[in-house]
Amino acid sequence: MMKPAVFVYSNDLLKYRFNENHPFNQLRLKLTLELLKKTGAIDDGDIVPPRIATDEELHLIHDPAYVEAVKMAGQGTLSEERASSYGLGTEDTPIFPGMHEASALLVGGTLTAVDYVMSGHSQHALSLGGGLHHGFRGKASGFCIYNDSSVAIKYLQNKYNARVLYVDTDAHHGDGVQWSFYDDPNVCTFSIHETGRYLFPGTGNVNERGQGKGYGYSFNIPLDAFTEDDSWLHAYSTALKEIVEFFKPDVILTQNGADSHFLDPLTHLSATMKIYKEIPRLAHELAHQYCDGKWIAVGGGGYDIWRVVPRAWAQIWLEMTEFSNLSAELPKDWIEEWQSSAPVTLPKTWDDPDGMYKPIPRKPEITEKNFQTVEKALYPIRSNSSSNT
């Protein structure tokens, strides 16, 4: 019998940890799972363990020499000079023991999710350990060693002959995935993110549309800093609906970075929990409308691991399973269990309170600018459809 969804997890996923002071902290996976358990939204029968990706699977995207370098780095046998040429040993991606095994497990978790959905064992699958969208063919970047989403998309193509729509709602541009498939008309990438004028990696301009046969299959909506919920949601919902209708994918893969929130320490957007309810709701609806429900979701950024990420990521599972028995307040026993570990006061409700930040004076100007960006991003679809009528 097909399950509505599976949750890919084991405590081994927490071993992807650069150091104690690094902002990328996979404890957020455990915090999210524990929140779902205390809510009564998940049980052990819904959880499946990740497998480790094979070298052959990693080579679908990554250069074999790079994979070997990652292995050597994790064993302490890679020279500083060689490490630097591969983007390893930097402030963003420091070397840590066993980094190949930890990274390959994140990739394997996403491949586990793919196989569950594409083999018909579940309609949806959530692999929050994945979403490392900055990794390149031969270089680590932006906290990402291997790019699980790129490997998963290539795997989907090779094993299942699938047309894949990749949707990236992280505040940082999904550059690694975009460039992996920039000339491929059977993969459509859509990234909505904070403009690269202020934020790493500095790419994701509206005119990055693909090249060669892939021209017209890459979509970017760079939003202005301080963008609020309504403008963010207008851009996301308008674009995603038109892109799905244009591309008609076999499966949707969503990357769910939770760093567009006002409280995130690394970004400059002003979204609240309102967008993190709507992101999975629309993806779910469109997956059923166009892909027989085939929807795979991964994690991504998110650096307020206490107040934001668990609530945001839990919403994906709640949507996948259509869990409706939700109160307004977070479970008291979850708060009590984790408050002593948290350096901040944990939220008490699923939603954010009104007045979380002062009104933004430039709001109308930002909203109009984002509106114009959406128009530019969707121009190829609209111009093509109008010329065909």
Structure description:
By secondary structure, the chain is α/β, with parallel strands linked by helices. It has twelve helices and eight strands. It has helices spanning 27-39, 55-58, 64-75, 80-85, 99-118, 148-160, 175-180, 229-247, 273-290, 309-320, 332-338, 363-387; strands at 3-8, 47-48, 122-127, 164-168, 187-194, 218-223, 251-255, 295-298. The protein has an eight-stranded parallel sheet, with helices on both faces. Helix 9 (273-290) links the parallel strand 7 and strand 8 (295-298). Helix 5 (99-118) crosses helix 6 and helix 8 (229-247) packs parallel to helix 12. The radius of gyration is 20 Å and the shape is globular. The N and C termini lie far apart (44 Å).
Q: What are the salient characteristics of this protein?
A:
389 residues, alpha/beta, single chain
Order of SSEs, N→C?
A: EHEHHHHEHEHEEHEHEHHH
Distance between the termini: 44 Å
Characterize the main sheet: 8 strands, parallel
Strand order of the largest sheet: 2-1-3-8-7-4-5-6
**Strand percentage:** 5-15%
**How helix-rich are the residues, as a percent range?**
25-40%
The rounded Rg comes to 20 Å
Total count of helical runs of at least 4 residues: 12
Number of strands: 8
Stretches with pLDDT under 50, minimum 5 residues: none
Name the overall outline. Answer: globular
- Average pLDDT across residues? 97
Structural class: alpha/beta
What topology emerges from the helices and strands here?
Elements: E1 3-8, H1 27-39, E2 47-48, H2 55-58, H3 64-75, H4 80-85, H5 99-118, E3 122-127, H6 148-160, E4 164-168, H7 175-180, E5 187-194, E6 218-223, H8 229-247, E7 251-255, H9 273-290, E8 295-298, H10 309-320, H11 332-338, H12 363-387
Parallel strand pairs: 1-2, 1-3, 3-8, 4-5, 4-7, 5-6, 7-8
Helix pairs in contact: 1-10, 5-6, 8-9, 8-12, 9-10
